[in-house]
């Protein structure tokens, strides 16, 4: 079972500034302070092709140790990045970020496909809460999110998002 999460946030800041934040673990750690802690992530920009390991504590209650974040692609010019994440509890958390300029700032879009087995509905709802929380703390002017059960199988050989997306 997989879930698809789409989160779109509008910002007054320009797209380049927001993409720098999107590709920074320091921003991730700071924007989730209060709901999650990450042990071992560098306070440096992400590097394409590199795998980072962290231990996460969610809401001060749940541990997610040995979590791996592989940065698959970073396109700084196009302001896009993709990561593939997992550990023993979460089979797959595939995340795509795109930041586009708009008339009065920028639009940040997160697309996440989650497979956590029988825990997928619970993990996906937490993911929706977490991404909305992060965007609120970044001072987004508006946030929209859609969570739905995925109608496709998740396979490492398939592209994360199809042209129709």
Fill in the keyword field for this structure.
165 residues, alpha+beta, Alpha-D-Glucose-1,6-Bisphosphate, Chain A, domain 4, eight-stranded antiparallel sheet, globular
Please write out the topology.
Blueprint: E1 3-11, H1 15-22, H2 25-31, E2 36-39, E3 51-58, E4 62-75, E5 80-86, E6 92-102, E7 105-115, H3 120-137, E8 142-149
Antiparallel strand pairs: 1-7, 1-8, 2-3, 3-4, 4-5, 5-6, 6-7
What would CATH call the homologous superfamily? START domain
Distance between the termini: 19 Å
Q: Tell me the name of the CATH class.
A: Alpha Beta
Tell how many strands the DSSP assignment holds. Answer: 8
What is the tally of helical segments? 3
- How many distinct domains? 1
Percentage of β-strand residues: 35-45%
Structural class: alpha+beta
Give the overall shape: globular
Series of H and E elements: EHHEEEEEEHE
Instruction: Compute the CA-based radius of gyration.
Output: 15 Å
CATH architecture label: 2-Layer Sandwich
Mean pLDDT: 90
Low-confidence stretches: 161-165
Q: Bin the helical content.
A: 10-25%
Largest sheet: 8 strands, antiparallel
Q: What is the fold-level CATH name, i.e. the topology?
A: Alpha-D-Glucose-1,6-Bisphosphate, Chain A, domain 4
Strand order of the largest sheet: 2-3-4-5-6-7-1-8
What can you tell me about this protein's structure?
The chain has 165 residues and is α+β, with helices and mostly antiparallel strands. The protein has a single domain (3-149), classed as Alpha-D-Glucose-1,6-Bisphosphate, Chain A, domain 4, CATH 3.30.530. Helices cover 20% and strands 44% of the residues. The chain is built from three helices and eight strands, in the order βααββββββαβ. It has an eight-stranded antiparallel beta sheet with strand order 2-3-4-5-6-7-1-8. The longest helix is centred in the last third of the chain and has 18 residues, at 120-137. The protein starts with a strand and ends in a 16-residue tail after the last strand. Residues 161-165 have low confidence and may be disordered.
């Amino acid at each position: 079972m997989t879930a698809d999460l789409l989160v779109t946030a509008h910002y007054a800041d320009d797209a380049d500034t927001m993409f720098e934040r999107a590709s920074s673990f320091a921003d991730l750690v700071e924007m989730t302070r209060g709901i999650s802690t990450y042990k071992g992530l560098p306070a440096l920009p992400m590097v394409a092709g590199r795998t980072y390991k962290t231990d996460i504590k969610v809401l001060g209650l749940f541990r997610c140790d040995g979590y791996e974040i592989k940065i698959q692609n970073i396109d700084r010019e196009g302001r896009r990045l993709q990561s593939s994440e997992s550990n023993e509890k979460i089979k797959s958390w595939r995340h795509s970020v795109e930041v586009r300029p708009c008339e009065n700032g920028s639009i940040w879009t997160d697309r996440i496909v989650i497979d956590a087995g029988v825990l997928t509905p619970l993990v996906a709802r937490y993911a929706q809460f977490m991404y909305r929380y992060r965007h609120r703390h970044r001072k987004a002017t508006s946030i929209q999110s859609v969570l739905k059960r995925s109608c496709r199988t998740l396979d490492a050989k398939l592209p994360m998002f199809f042209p129709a997306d």
